[in-house]
Every structure is written in structure tokens, then in C-alpha cells.
């Protein structure tokens, strides 16, 4: 009995030295009362309700009421519970309600979900010196630490860097279903950030009775840069993380690529299937009126280095130039030919002849490995491509460019809107990065699908020309790496869902666009003829061309079928070697 009386006397003495803040609040400045109710939900999210009573607010909040939610790395500082420091700790919030003195209040949350500070009321408008009561409700993601044996929750009642005093604070943790307070280990603390700033003598800390499913603590006289924190640990099994938890925050952005995919699917069904090949009958002559380069354009949809080689071979066959191999290079010499011969050339062959010898009667061509040769050979291929597009573009093959253009619109408009409204730890560059990724990714994908993929397949099949495709491959690797880095920045600055949305928009376009190509009725008929002619070249003419035209020698007279063999990828030694020289020179066909 005497011991109880002694303890009571000591308690009254302490209270006399350090009177509780709630004993006399008539002259108190700061937060007179704070209560935080944290409800743990079975999906490992937290529902938080904060009640803040402020006295003499004008003293501390001269530019409006600004409050930091306790989610930043500064407030979640204890590495024992949250691991090593990271600039972005992954904790995200969604504000559900903000009221001031019982009425809904305007608020701004700064730069987004991971940003802790919110401003309540008119921007910059100072609070008066009276009493104000604010209530904030929000959802917290990724603050729990579920484990194999036990679950852990570490929570600070309010921010550490606060300048105002808190007279009285209550922190109540509401446990998930199936967890009783009796099996929970609680570690409360009042103090500053870091173990070197422990509880001070004026601080009080007591466990209080609250709701049946809650563990609650009350603290008083909490000075600036102090906080009330609570760590709870209970056996694992009561909560779980969703399998795709990163989608919880803003997985709705993935509706954009899903809608785009549906658009292309409907367009693909509406366009209908491609015309099936007919019966292939061997033909001893190429289709009437089609040059070697034109046949390649129809068969592959591209104008490339083999098209250029086929044009050079055709000009040699027609007696307009002479080709001399010289140590991996080719010397071309202009020959005198009659007007009738030149007038009978295909338009792309006439133009190539004029461009090749515009600076003199001789020219030396080499593989497009260095920058100068690549630009030079690419220029020749461009001229050939322009003539072919004028003659037969869209006549034999359609890519349904209108559908693809509409798909592009349905790609960039939603992406633009979502990037402008993006919220995250650092969403300042979301617009630029999104547009850059989509634009460069679509261009890069189109180049690979229509040009480089074919060059790689040809090189792999022949085992030659690796140096020719190396510059283009290196450029693609560089841009691909840049896209990957920007997607990583979007994932960390905005969200994983947002980065997945951008990548999915890119993938849907690149995956569907090639599926919309269709052959016209005329194109199907001509392709069947080309297939018959190629069959003839492979089965009848290939061996003879190899014998008459060795790869390392200058032939006295080229076989008239060699330009077509080059254009149709028929493996014959002399033409193959010539084609490999210009393999890296590629232009994508346009419809």
C-alpha cells in the first residue's frame, strides 16, 4: 500500500514539473490534439484516418495549412523495419477525403502518389489564429512487411520534420480479421529520428483501451522533430499480397493498350484473310513488263541492297556498263550503248544509270560498312525505290495505311493524356519520355520488320556479309537500350503500370501492323507467276549460272537470268557475292 502511495506521489510530482499539454490549452500554440487510426486490410493495404486539431494556426501555418503524411523515407527511417535508405521507398497513397471544420476542403497533393505533402484550403491563404480541425482519410500501399513467419507493420503517427508541438497524440492500430491483440507484439516509441534522439523526460507514453480489434497508445508533450511510432508483429497468414500488386495503384492505364488491341483485332476481322496462293506452274520467263527490281519489290515489299545489285547486273546484261571485281570492291565502267537499248530499260534502271555515272565514266563501289559508303549506296537505293513506288506502289500489295494511321492516333492521344496527368515520385519528364519511346520504338520496329530482319535472315543463311549489317545492328541496339532505360525511368518515376502501358502500346502496334498486309487480286496472280519463275531458276538454271559466272572472275557475258536470280534470292555464286556487297543498303517500301 505504501509503495502505491509513493508511486502516486512521484507521478504527481512529475506532472507538476511537466504539466500535460491538454491541461491548459487556452494559450497553447500548435497541434492540441492528433489521432491516427490505421486499419490493416487483408490485401496488405492500410486505411488511415487522421484527425488534427490546430490552435493558434497562424503562428505555424502562415501560407495555409500544409501537412506531410508520414510516408517519406525521412519518416520511415528505421532500417530495422524498412531496410536500407532509398530515395523512393515505394510507399504510395491515395487521398480519399479531406475536411476542414466538418466541411469538405480543397487540397493539393504535390507531385503525386508518393509525394507526402498536401496543402489544404486556398493556396497561400494564411490560417487565422483560432482553432481548426482537419480530417484526412487515405489509403496506403506497400507499407506492410509480410513475411514467411510473421507480418510486420512500422508506422509513425506524423512527420518528423514538423515545427509545431503536439500536446496530445493517439495512435490506434486496427488489426486485420483473425488477429487478436493478445498475440501481437507491440513496440511503441516517442522520440526523434534516429536512435540517438530518444524519448525526453517531458514525454509521456501509455497504452490505452480503444476498439476491441485495436492496439492504441497515447503520448503527450511531443516536441518539434519528435513523433509517436508503433511497430506491430503478429504470426503470418492474416494478410496477403495480391499476385500482381503493382497493378493496384494505377493498373487502369493498361486499358489503353487493351483498347488498341481490340481496335486492331476488329480491323483484322473486317479486312478478312489474305488471298491464298494458286497452283504454282514453272515459268521459263519472268512476268511480262516487270524488271528484276520490280519483281523483288512485289515479292518482298522492299527495295534493298539486293535490288540495287539486281539493277547493276541488269545494266551489265543490257550492255550499259561493265563490272570488274577488285578485292571485295566493284569497278563499274560506263559502256556506249544505243538509244534503243537505253530507252527499253525500266525507269529505275534508267535513273540508276544516270545517277551512277553523273560524276564520270567510272565508279568504284564497296560494301556499305563505313559511313561514306553507306550514305552513297543508300542514295542509289533511294533513287531506285522512288521509281518503283511511282510505278507499282499499292498496285500489288496494300498495308491498309489508313487503319494503321488510325491506330497511331489511338496510340498517341491516350498516351499523351495519361503522360500529362501522370502522378508519381518524379513525373516531370513523363510526357517527353513517353512520346520519345513511342516514336522511336515504332520507327525502329518498322525498320526491323520490313528491312533489317530480311537482311539478317539473308546474312544468316549465306554466312556472309556480317560486317555489312553491323552498323545498322549497332544503331538498333543503341536505340533499343535507350528505350529500355527510359522505360526503367518511367517505372521508378511514375509507376510500373505506366511503363508497362507504354511498352504495351508499342508492342501492340508492332505486332498488329504486319498482320494487316494484304495482296491485291492482281498481286496474288503476279506472285504466283513469280513463284513459278523462281522454281524454274532454282531447278533448271542455277547450276548453269554458277558454272558460267564464277564469283571471283569478271564474266565475258552475264547470263540474262542472273539479275532475276539476285532479286529472288536464288543462290548463285556471282550474283550472291555482288548482292552481299550492298546488303546493308535498305529502304522500306511504302504503299
The helix count comes to 17
**What does the main sheet amount to?**
8 strands, mixed
Low-confidence stretches: 1-25, 584-591
| Overall pLDDT metric | 81
What is the C-alpha radius of gyration, as a whole number of Å? 38 Å
Oligomer: single chain
Placed side by side, the strands forming the largest sheet appear as 5-4-8-2-1-11-14-13
Q: Name the CATH architecture of the largest domain.
A: Sandwich
Task: Give the helix proportion (percent range).
Answer: 40-55%
Span of the ends, CA to CA: 100 Å
Domains counted in the coordinates: how many?
3
Q: How would you describe the shape?
A: elongated
Could you tell me the strand content as a percent range? 15-25%
Tell me how many strands there are. 22
Description:
There is one protein chain. Helix content is 41%, strand content 22%. The protein is α+β, with helices and mostly antiparallel strands. It has 3 domains: 31-245, Sandwich (Immunoglobulin-like), CATH 2.60.40; 248-260 and 400-515, no CATH class; 293-397 and 546-588, no CATH class. The chain has an 8-stranded mixed beta sheet with strand order 5-4-8-2-1-11-14-13. A 4-stranded antiparallel beta sheet has the order 9-10-15-12, with no helix packed on it. A hairpin with a 2-residue loop joins strand 17 and strand 18.
Amino acid at each position: 500500500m505504501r509503495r502505491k502511495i509513493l508511486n502516486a506521489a512521484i507521478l504527481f510530482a512529475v506532472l507538476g514539473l511537466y504539466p500535460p499539454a491538454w491541461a491548459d490549452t487556452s494559450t497553447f500554440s500548435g497541434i492540441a490534439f492528433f489521432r491516427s487510426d490505421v486499419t490493416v486490410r487483408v490485401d496488405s493495404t492500410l486505411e488511415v484516418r487522421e484527425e488534427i486539431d490546430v490552435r493558434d494556426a497562424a503562428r505555424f501555418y502562415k501560407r495555409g495549412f500544409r501537412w506531410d503524411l508520414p510516408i517519406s523515407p525521412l519518416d520511415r527511417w528505421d532500417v530495422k523495419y524498412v531496410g536500407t535508405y532509398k530515395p523512393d521507398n515505394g510507399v504510395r497513397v491515395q487521398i480519399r477525403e479531406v475536411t476542414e471544420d466538418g466541411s469538405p476542403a480543397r487540397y493539393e497533393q504535390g507531385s503525386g502518389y508518393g509525394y507526402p505533402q498536401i496543402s489544404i484550403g486556398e493556396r497561400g491563404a494564411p490560417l487565422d489564429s483560432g482553432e481548426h480541425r482537419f480530417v484526412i482519410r487515405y489509403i496506403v500501399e506497400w507499407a506492410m512487411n509480410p513475411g514467411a513467419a510473421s507480418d510486420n507493420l512500422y508506422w509513425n503517427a506524423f512527420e518528423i520534420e514538423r515545427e509545431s508541438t503536439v500536446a496530445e497524440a493517439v495512435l490506434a492500430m486496427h488489426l486485420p480479421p483473425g488477429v487478436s491483440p493478445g498475440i501481437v507484439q507491440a513496440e511503441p516509441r516517442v522520440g526523434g529520428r534516429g536512435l540517438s534522439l530518444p524519448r525526453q523526460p517531458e514525454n509521456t507514453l501509455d497504452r490505452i483501451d480503444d476498439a476491441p480489434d485495436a492496439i492504441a497508445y497515447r503520448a503527450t508533450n511531443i516536441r518539434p522533430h519528435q513523433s509517436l511510432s508503433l511497430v506491430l508483429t503478429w504470426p503470418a497468414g492474416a494478410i496477403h499480397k495480391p499476385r500482381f500488386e503493382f497493378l493496384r495503384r494505377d493498373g487502369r492505364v493498361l486499358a489503353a493498350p487493351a483498347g488498341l488491341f481490340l481496335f486492331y483485332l476488329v480491323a483484322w476481322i473486317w479486312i478478312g484473310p489474305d488471298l491464298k496462293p494458286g497452283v504454282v506452274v514453272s515459268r521459263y520467263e519472268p512476268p511480262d513488263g516487270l524488271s528484276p527490281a520490280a519483281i523483288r519489290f512485289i515479292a518482298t515489299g522492299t527495295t534493298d541492297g539486293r535490288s540495287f545489285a539486281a539493277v547493276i547486273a541488269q545494266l551489265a546484261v543490257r550492255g550499259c556498263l561493265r563490272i570488274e571485281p577488285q578485292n571485295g570492291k566493284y569497278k563499274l565502267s560506263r559502256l556506249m550503248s544505243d538509244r534503243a537499248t537505253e530507252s527499253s530499260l525500266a525507269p529505275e534502271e534508267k535513273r540508276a544509270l544516270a545517277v551512277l555515272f553523273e560524276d564520270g565514266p567510272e565508279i568504284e563501289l564497296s560494301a556499305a560498312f563505313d559511313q561514306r559508303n553507306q550514305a552513297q549506296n543508300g542514295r542509289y537505293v533511294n533513287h531506285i525505290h522512288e521509281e518503283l513506288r511511282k510505278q507499282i506502289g499499292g498496285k500489288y500489295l496494300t498495308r491498309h495505311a489508313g487503319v494503321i494511321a488510325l491506330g497511331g492516333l489511338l496510340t498517341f492521344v491516350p498516351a499523351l493524356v495519361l503522360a500529362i496527368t501522370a502522378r508519381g515520385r518524379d513525373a516531370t519528364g513523363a510526357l517527353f519520355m513517353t512520346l520519345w519511346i513511342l516514336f522511336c520504338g515504332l520507327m525502329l520496329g518498322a525498320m526491323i520488320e520490313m528491312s533489317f530482319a530480311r537482311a539478317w535472315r539473308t546474312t544468316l543463311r549465306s554466312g556472309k556479309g556480317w560486317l555489312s549489317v553491323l552498323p545498322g545492328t549497332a544503331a538498333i541496339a543503341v536505340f533499343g537500350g535507350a528505350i529500355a532505360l527510359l522505360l526503367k525511368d518511367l517505372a521508378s518515376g511514375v509507376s510500373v503500370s505506366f511503363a508497362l502501358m507504354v511498352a504495351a502500346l508499342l508492342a501492340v502496334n508492332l505486332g498488329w501492323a504486319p498482320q494487316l498486309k494484304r495482296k491485291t487480286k492482281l498481286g496474288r496472280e503476279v506472285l504466283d507467276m513469280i513463284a513459278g519463275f523462281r522454281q524454274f531458276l532454282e531447278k533448271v538454271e542455277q547450276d548453269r549460272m554458277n558454272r558460267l559466272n564464277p564469283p571471283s572472275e569478271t564474266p565475258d557475258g552475264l547470263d540474262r537470268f542472273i539479275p532475276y536470280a539476285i532479286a529472288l534470292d536464288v543462290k548463285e555464286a556471282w550474283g550472291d557475292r555482288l548482292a552481299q556487297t550492298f546488303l546493308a543498303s535498305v529502304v522500306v517500301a511504302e504503299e
